[in-house]
Design goal:
Order of helices and strands of chain B: EEEHEEEEHHHEHEHEEHHEEEEEEEEHEE
Number of helices of chain A: 12
CATH superfamily of the largest domain in chain B: P-loop containing nucleotide triphosphate hydrolases
Largest sheet of chain B: 6 strands, mixed
Largest sheet of chain A: none
CATH topology of the largest domain in chain B: Rossmann fold
Radius of gyration of chain B: 24 Å
Structural class of chain A: mainly alpha
Shape of chain A: globular
Strand content of chain A: under 5%
Shape of chain B: globular
Oligomer: heterodimer
Largest interface: A-B, 19 and 26 residues
Distance between the termini of chain B: 40 Å
Number of helices of chain B: 9
Number of domains of chain A: 2
Number of domains of chain B: 2
Strand content of chain B: 35-45%
Order of helices and strands of chain A: HHHHHHHHHHHH
CATH architecture of the largest domain in chain B: 3-Layer(aba) Sandwich
CATH topology of the largest domain in chain A: MetI-like fold
CATH architecture of the largest domain in chain A: Orthogonal Bundle
Helix content of chain B: 10-25%
Number of strands of chain B: 21
């Protein structure tokens, strides 16, 4: 009897939590008729923001993938003096308030920043350009990919890389033919997470890149501007929010599938921080 | 056949230092307890571990020379290493695993190891015995100059083990390259290798044929590793050909071994030299230890019967004929010539 009450209570609390999490999502889609929302998608503000978001996100993720993968592999396979410090540095943007990240980027890469004079000597101005958006997104989203990549590489059986070497493959061939195929699922999961985080980037972007339509105004920035400034912008903001919800849902699904994929070839379990791998 | 030579190869390990010299020109087994540094020897030969000092050569080619700063990478040596867990690539099929070593060789090795029907299977779906065949095929497809086997039988269940050991025995007999295998099981080593080295705490205690190790174990550790019973006592009298030793429980034993001095001695008695009976044997030339049977373990058609400090190996037929049961009183007897003195000072053991 007491057990039945206990489990009933447990279910009630879980339902309450789920409802709390679902309600805002439902709100976005039921507040205004779907027709009106769809109509808003042809609004130039929405189209421009969508293009800026997609372009900067893809560039930022490419950057994270190209630079983050070797870094993660190094951190996963070698132990050296300052290793923990390096890992902490990689993870720091994850807990840093985005506004602080924005200020940091300005003081590092801005006109008056640490590298400002060197950059202007090269004729490069970063703040308030689309490149600045890409940099802000890459800075804030990179830990999600790199951390996951480190965990994935660490889970690779060292006997397999050793076997590859004794079978005549050098370190590079071993990486591409053994390590990478086995890590594939985990890396894609990390990238999906990083993509989702980057797409929602707001604080660092608005401080370092501003919110100029067609140049630096991404979907989250456009949502805020429409909501805050435009008198009839709420519907537009809703439409863009709907788009972001859908993209995020697709990314999460990708992540789930990628993690199952990761588990099937090598039976090792993989822990993805923030997300349980026991789907 | 190539010869792989290790000279004073030194690898610092957690609590001790591995240091050994070894020549491998046929099938050699290294045995020893886990953590003795056996796998480290294989890794050093394969180039997966860089020793701190020493020299490793394969015929005239130097694979490692600490003094001259030579260290060939694993892919620059031709070594076939079969890992304890086989380390088959889980994302590749059996055929692809073999082709990974060398392109265009899969058909030959699929055929040689009778695994053609498995060519499209992934390692995850194979049995232990099949995995080992694939791992061997892959290692040999590399056309190695030496085959290294890390605990080749430990990942298998008892039934498969006997089958695979026979396969491995045949393979090693036909192999035209030297092989070094490590195992913690003397029986496996004796079945597979002509020469056995006993490695303890990074040092080679003794090297010899399995028969030599059994006949003349250098110390109590080697004796117990080869499966001998160890009896501790003190010499109390010395005759022309035999010495009397009083065991710790008071039993008097005679040995033809050389138990000089008056310090503690350790005698090795092999289970197959011990006879079990229900009544005291009337042969006064026999050593007898009387007591209750503390354990009976059947191993296939043989059985181990333990009385006091002695285990005897007898056939299951004898076990049934004598009607032995745990708890019964029995007599374990062995000849003076069935004892070997393995330590004769300072009460070692």
């Amino acid at each position: 009897m007491r057990r039945a009450v206990g489990s009933g209570l447990l279910i009630a609390v879980a339902l309450l939590t789920l409802a709390f999490l679902a309600l805002p999502i439902v709100g976005i889609f039921v507040h205004t008729s779907p027709g009106k929302l769809l109509h808003q998608l042809s609004n130039p503000v929405v189209k421009d923001a969508f293009l800026v978001s997609v372009k900067t996100s893809l560039l930022a993720q490419a950057l994270i993938l190209l630079l983050g993968t070797p870094t993660a592999y190094l951190l996963a396979t070698r132990r050296f003096f300052g290793h923990s410090l390096a890992v902490t540095l990689v993870e720091l943007p994850l807990v840093l308030p985005p506004a602080v990240a924005g200020i940091g980027l300005l003081t590092a890469l801005g006109r008056e920043g640490l590298l400002g004079s060197s950059l202007s000597a090269l004729g490069v101005t970063l703040p308030f350009t689309q490149t600045a958006v890409t940099i802000a997104v890459a800075y804030v989203a990179s830990p999600l990919y790199i951390r996951q990549a480190i965990a994935t590489f660490e889970a690779t059986d060292p006997h397999l890389t050793a076997a590859s070497r004794t079978l005549g493959a050098g370190p590079v061939r071993t990486f591409f033919r053994v390590v990478l195929p086995l890590a594939r699922g985990g890396l894609i999961a990390g990238l999906a997470l990083s993509f989702a985080r980057g797409l929602g980037e707001f604080g660092a972007t608005i401080m370092f890149a501003g919110s100029l339509q067609r140049v630096t105004q991404t979907l989250p920035l456009a949502i805020y501007q429409e909501f805050d400034i435009q008198p009839d912008g709420f519907t537009t903001a809703l439409a863009m929010s709907g788009v972001l919800v859908l993209i995020s849902a697709v990314l999460l699904l990708t992540l789930r599938i990628a993690l199952t994929w990761q588990r099937s070839p090598s039976s090792r379990s993989l822990s993805l921080f923030g997300l349980s791998s026991s789907v | 056949m190539a010869t792989v030579t290790l000279e004073q190869v030194t690898v610092p390990l957690r609590t001790f230092e591995l240091r050994l010299s070894l020549t491998v020109d046929s099938t050699v087994a290294l045995i020893g307890p886990s953590g003795a540094g056996k796998s480290t020897v294989l890794n050093a030969i394969a180039g997966l571990t860089k020793p701190a000092a020493g020299l490793i050569r394969c015929d005239e080619r130097t694979w490692f020379d600490a003094d001259r700063g030579v260290f060939l990478q694993p892919e620059e040596r031709r070594v076939g290493l079969v890992f304890q867990d086989y380390a088959l690539f889980p994302h590749l099929t059996v055929r692809q695993n073999i082709e990974y070593a060398r392109r265009g060789t899969a058909d030959e090795y699929l055929d040689r190891f009778a695994i053609g029907q498995l060519e499209d299977a992934r390692p995850g779906s194979l049995s232990g015995g099949e995995r080992q065949r694939v791992a061997l095929a892959r290692a040999l497809a590399r056309e190695p100059e030496i085959l290294l086997l890390d605990e080749p039988l430990s990942a298998l269940d008892a039934h498969t083990k006997i089958e695979v050991r026979a396969e491995l025995q045949q393979l090693l007999a036909e192999l035209e390259i030297p092989a070094l295998l490590v195992t913690h099981d003397f029986e496996d080593a004796a079945a597979l290798a002509g020469e056995v080295g006993v490695l303890v705490d990074g040092q080679l205690r003794q090297t010899g044929s399995p028969t030599e190790l059994v006949a003349q174990p250098a110390d109590p550790f080697v004796a117990s590793f080869t499966g001998a019973n160890l009896l501790h006592g003190r010499p109390v009298w010395a005759g022309a050909h035999t010495t009397g030793v009083r065991l710790e429980d008071g039993t008097l034993i005679s040995t033809t071994g050389d138990a000089d001095g008056d310090g503690a001695v350790t005698l090795a008695v092999y289970p197959w030299d011990v006879t079990i009976s229900r009544t005291r044997p009337d042969d006064s030339a026999m050593n007898v230890i009387a007591g209750a049977i503390s354990a009976i373990t059947e191993l296939g058609n043989r059985a181990r019967v333990t009385i006091g400090p002695l285990s005897a190996e007898i056939t299951v037929d004898s076990l049934r004929r004598l009607g032995l049961e745990p708890g019964q009183n029995g007599y374990a007897s062995f000849k003076a010539t069935g004892t070997r003195v393995v330590a004769s000072r300072g009460g070692t053991g």
